[in-house]
Specification:
Helix content is 66%, strand content 0%. The chain is an all-alpha fold and 228 residues long. It folds into 2 domains: 9-51, Arc Repressor Mutant, subunit A (Orthogonal Bundle), CATH 1.10.10; 70-219, Tetracycline Repressor, domain 2 (Orthogonal Bundle). Helix 5 (77-94) crosses helix 6 and helix 6 packs antiparallel against helix 8.
Amino acid sequence: MAKRKREPLSAERIETAAIELIEAKGLEAFSARKLAARLGCEAMSIYHYFPSKAHLMDALFDRVLSGIAAPDPGLPWRERLRQSLLEYRAMAHRYPRFFQFIALHRHNTRAGLALLESILTLVREGGFDTEKTARYFRAMSYYVVGAALDETSGYAKGPSAVVPVTDEEAARDFPEVVAVNPYFEPTEHQTTFDLGLDILLDSLEREANAVGKNTTARRWRAPRLASI
């Protein structure tokens, strides 16, 4: 029987296999040796394309960030900003295990800086000065990155007490905690995320209207949310 020809190694094939391995096994279990086994090659063959594991991780970082879709330029300012943030969150859900690396990696690569530049430019279109642009961008980053981490690898998947409070005890002694539990389920994440995002965008829009430099923002009137 003829031997099947092995697919030639390439940087793209290595990156694809690396992402698949990380999502299957987690960041802690990822190594050049395991990646080489998945590819059917020697670990040294990988280093021909990437001088170190750190170089490979940077390449994966750029690859994933480059895949985030840009907002539709025909949308109003607020909606373009909203779409950008939703696309970032969607990326985190596509790569939940690798996102743990992305969330803590400085965005000082070409793709990382390009993403920051695009969102900062979009915020700036609200008519804000440099300080306001920086602070609003940072506040949105806190919210979106924190929410994405919590949804993909956070509280529900974290450590638990050795002897947790029983359901009966909780119902008796902590009724408010029990009452809100259904709204913490994964099926409720989108609704809760949208609520928080609208609160942030409402604040930006009010400020943009006050500045009076963005006519698109002035034309858009979001529904008023009750304070929580």
